[in-house]
Amino acid sequence: MRDTRANRLLFQIGAVLFALLVTVLVLFLAGAQPFAAYKYIVLGALGSWDVVTNVLVSWVPLLLATSGLLVTFTVGLWNIGIEGQITLGAVFTTWAMRLLQDSGWNPTLILVLALLAGILGGTLWALLAGVLRTFGGVNEIFGGLGLNFVATALNIWLIFGPWKRPGVASMSGTLPFDRALWMPIAAGSSRLTPATLVMAVVGIIAVYAMIEGTYFGLRLKAVGKNPKAAYILGIPTWQNMMASFAICGVFAGLAGAVQVTAVYHRLIPSISSGYGYLGLMVALLVGYRASLAAPVALFFAALNVGSIQLPIILKLDSSLAGVLQGTLVLFVMLGNGIRARLIKKGT
Amino acid sequence: MNDAALITSIAGVLAAAAPVLFAVIGETISERAGVLNLSMNGMILLSAMGSFAVALATDSVVLGFLAGAAIGAFIAFVVAFASLTLRQSQVAVGFVLAQLCRDLSYFLGNPIMGKVGPRISQVPIPVLERIPVLGTIFFRQDAMTYLSFVLIVLAWFFIFKTRPGLVLRGVGERPAAAYIRGANVNRQRYVYAVIGGAIAGLAGPIYSLSIKAGWKGTISGLDGIGWIVLSITIFGGWKPFRAAFGAYLFAFLQWLGLVLQPSLPSVPSQVLQVAPFPLMILTLLFVNIGNAEWVDRSLARLPENVRRDIAKVLRALNATPPAGLGTPFEKE
User: Contact A333/B96, CB-based, under 8 Å?
Assistant: First the structure.
C-alpha cells in the first residue's frame, strides 16, 4: 500500500465508523437504544441557541488547554499535570478577586488582574513540574499526576477552610462573586462571554504561528524529535523544556481563570472539570497538529454538552461522552498503526 | 488507642494494601519485560465494576475474580498490540485506555450502582489464628490477602531466581542481547504484559468483592488508585519486596489520614485522603535525584567523607528503570 492522502482519509473514516460501532455495542450492553442516545446527544448540543452557546462556553477552556498541550507535546513532554495547572489558575484568580472585590476599583481592571493572577498560578505550577523533571529526574507524567492531587487537595481545603461560605462550607463552592465582577455576557445568551472566546481563538492561532512559523518553534521541534542531536547542534534542552512548560502553564492558568470569572463565578471543588485530560485526548486525536485542534475540540465540547441531559431523559450515565471520545481516539490510533504497517509492507 | 484496636488496625492496613500489591506486582512484571501499562487507573475501575457485575449475575465470587483478571489481561493485550505490533506510543495508548476504561466503568456500572452482592469473607487459619498479636494481624484475613503475601515472594523468586525470570529481565533490559540469545523478544513482552495485566486486574475484584464491596460509581473512591500504583512501581525500583514496602506504606498513610481526622477538625477529609500523594512525589524525587547530573557535579565539590556518605544514601534510594522500558524492539 502506498502513502496517499486518499487512503489516510479512508482509514480515518474507518476509525470513526469503528468507534461508532463499538459505542453502539456498549449501548446495547447497557440495555439502551443507541439511536435514541445519539439523537439526544445531537439535540442536546445543537437543539437550541442556548445549548449551542453552552457548547461554545465549554469549548473555550478545552481549546485553551489543548493549545498549551500542543506546545509541550512539540518538545516531547507529556504534561499530564495540566489538570493541576488549571486548578491553580482558578485558585489564584479567586484569590485575586477576593482581595480586590471590595476595593472599589474598576471591575474591568479587577477582571484583568484576576486573569493575570490565574496565568501566574498556572505557570508556577507548570514550572514546578518542569523543575521536578529537569533537575529532579522525576518523569513529568508522575510528577504531574502527584501535583494534580496536591492541587485538588489545596482547592478543597480553601473551599472548606479559609474561603468557606458564611455559615456552612459545602461542595457547591465559595460564595459567588458580585454580578459586576462577572465576565460580560453576550446579549441574547445566558452564559456566552465574547471576551473569553476571543482569548481562545487568538491563543490557538498564536500557538500555530509559533510552532510553524518561528525559530523558537523550530527549536522546540528539534528538541522534541531528538533531544541529544539538538543538544549537540547547540540547542539547549532543559531551557526549551522549561519554556514550553511555562507556556502551557499560561494557557492552563488562563483556562482556570476563565472557569472562575466566566463560567462558575466562584471556586468549586471540580473547577478544572477534566478539561486538562480531555485536552490531552484532543491533542492525541489531532496528532499534535495545531491546525485541527479547534474543530476537534469543538466536537468534543459538543459531545460533553450533548450528553448532559442523558441521565434525565434516558437514565443513562453522561460518561457516554467520554466513552465516545475514548473509543474515537483509540481507533484512530490503531488505524494509524495498521496503515503504517501496510505501507511498510508495500514498499 | 488501646492495643487491641491497634492490632486490628494493622490487620486492616495489610488487607487494604492487598489490591495495591496485586496491581503493583502486575505492573512490575509488565515493566520488567519493557511494557509500560499506563492504563492502570481505568483498568482497576473497569475490573472492579465488571467483576462485581459478573459476581452479582452469577452469584459466584470465583467467576467475579476470573472476570477481573480477564479484563486486566484484555486491556494489557490492547496496550501490547497497539505498542508492540502497531508501533504506537505506549504512553499515549495507555493514557487513552485509562480514560476510556474509567468512563466505560461509570457508564456500564450505572444500573448496578449501590446494589448488594456477594463478597468474600475472612478465613481464619486454624491454630495459627490463636497466636497472640500475630494471629490477629496475619491469620484472620481473607483469601486474597493471604495470596498477596505469597505473591510478593513468588514474584521475587520468579524474577530473580528462575531461568524464565532471567529472560524476562533480559527482554526489558537488553532486548537486542536477549534476541541474540534466542529469546523471541516481542512474544515474551506480549506474554508478560498480559500476565501482569491479569494479576493487576485482580485488584478490581479485591475492592468490589471485599474491602469496598459493591459498586458506587464516581463515589467508589477508587479513582486515582491506579496512578498511585504506577508511582509505587517506580518507588519499588521494579523489585517485589521494595514494591511491597511501598504498597504497605501507602495503605498505612491512608489509614493514618483517617485516624488523624478527628483530631484535625479544620482539615476536610478529602485533604487527608490525598496526603500520600505529595509524599509519593517526594519519594520519587529521592529515588530519581541520584540519576541527575548536577547532583554528581555538586557532590564532587564536597569534602571526601561527606560526599561518600551522601552518595551511599542516594545509591540506596536510587532506582533505575529497565533500559528498554517503553521503547519498541526492532530486529535489524
Answer: yes
